[in-house]
Amino acid sequence: MPKYLVIVESPAKAKTIKKFLGSNYEVLASSGHVRDLPKSKLGFDPENDFEPKYITIRGKGDLLAKLRKEVKKADKVYLATDPDREGEAISWHLAAALKLDDTLSNRITFNEITKNAVKNSLKQARTIDMNLVNSQQARRMLDRMVGYRISPLLWEKVKRGLSAGRVQSVALRIICDREEEINAFIPKEYWTLETTLKIAGEKKPLVAKFYGDEKGKLEIESEEQMNEIIKKLENATYSVTDVKKGERIKKAPLPFTTSTMQQEAAKVLNYSTQKTMRIAQQLYEGVDVKGHGTIGLISYLRTDSTRISDEADASAKDFIKEQYSETYVAAEDMNKNSKKKIQDAHEAIRPTYVEMTPTIIKESLSRDQFRLYQLIWKRFIASRMQPAKYETTSVKIAANGYRFTTSASKLVFDGFLSVYSTEEDKEENNSLSKSLDAESKLSLETMDSKQHFTQPPAHFTEASLVKTLEELGIGRPSTYAPTITTIIARRYVAKENKNLYVTELGEIVNKIMLQAFSTIVDVNFTANLEMLLDCVETGTVNWKTVVSNFYPDLDEAVKNAEEKLEKIKIEDEVTDVVCEECGRNMVIKYGPHGKFLACPGFPDCRNTKPYLEKIGVNCPKCGKEVVIRKTKKGRKYYGCESNPECDFMTWQKPTNEKCPKCDNVMVERGNNLVCLGETCGFTKQKEKKKED
Hints:
alpha+beta, four-stranded antiparallel beta sheet, 34% helix, 30 strands, Topoisomerase I, domain 3, Rossmann fold, six-stranded antiparallel β-barrel
């Protein structure tokens, strides 16, 4: 009997696949990459056609020796790494390290780890796809160029331990740009008006919102304007001018891509992108399910596609027909709206066995695994179902020349909502009185006016940043989680209550990147580079062309920056704070969290204290100095030096100027001064400083 060797990346995947194959198959894991560019140097020669120099990764020698022994025993070797660029590159490196003949058809791929998928892949073995490999090589080398050429510059100009990255630096810029938008935002006052109207003969009152007048929509911008409208409405006659009934459908959601899975897991389960990908990897590679052994529960987790195979589509529709009835099964082909992207070779993320409902396998999964699997399972089943149908009613009401509106939606067919719904879907279901028509008599019960201020753009969360990166075409499914993890780990960005905030260190690094490497952090340039890498994957562009066009400009920019960029020297500035342990004046040092006070007598005296930088403004509550403080995660704010005795704090920089309208503190926002009072809204332009 011939002997076969199958090599995969992870031991978990090896264990799952082994049970599908006969005793003449040996399944081993490479534990990821076995070769890479050397850590100590760039790893390729710009003078020699950018030829990469790969070496065996430290610690992989024994594993490769074991694999070589097994290769000698086997009649045929199959390389079964993941079905994407990275997986193709791992197979190529394994073939080189194990001296396999790369003209042989020994590469197999499967989108899900099931018996049928694995056995079918053995029948469709192919040669290694060098377009995929070259795309990965080009991406790796571009990332290496940016990291290895710019990071040392940051070490020299700012401090050791910093890093730059082709995608991470753009992500940092996007967050910094949003922070600037928020800081420069000037709130605008507006008012809303709601009336509660009694319908003659009905117990339930009608709540209608102010819309405008006969000319159309009207914005209420001040209290004076609001009082004038209320005065005209107090004794007005309210009458129904129009009642429209209609039907609205809400389409079923598409199955998950990597990006939408990360966004929904963050929103619904409060998972970080890194946690979502880690758990999805476990579900894909295989979980020990009671009565079934180790099985892969979801299809491949790195994908841009919403496409579903015909077999999986039919299986889901049969399940829906059996569990819910024929009326719930989606009529049209759900694949037709699928976006044609480079990774459309994969399917969307879906359960491998629809009959494995979350309830059935709950006991076999950890809490985190169960919650993510349930989300994926429900989303997939919902995507194969009919839309939800609502009966809608919209009413227009007239009163002394003004117009009010109210509307309602009543769910008449739940469709996909029977499986998958959000809080927003539940709120949509409300109804109005059936007897309401043009003859209905209305009388005013109450009027409720409220003052509001427009809100600045929201801070990015991990989910909204992933969505933005995807929309801008920056990065790919496999890069979102590591990119966000890196900028948080480097302390360029702090994460607090889901929101991402730029730290002082992040601002400094972003300024240097904008000043010296504007192309690298340009959103359009990065997106175009991603498109070129996709073209390498399809074989329409040579990978060395991409690399050789990129390097000279980067090399020139680095040389210019080395000469022209001023060193941001974090001086050991002497302060008037005396070290209580040795009597020396303490100095300002710069650490991972920013500035702090340290004794200059180090290492003899190791005393340190938080550094509180004064901004020359008196605390409006107690009269002491306002200082710059930082949260535990590095986000900057302004607070009183006598905290916790005095609780004054603000995220914007306060001034000594008082609001002429309400006598509250004025804070800086971009080029304006804004009143800190929540209900005031007074703003004025900052006075330009006279130049000497």
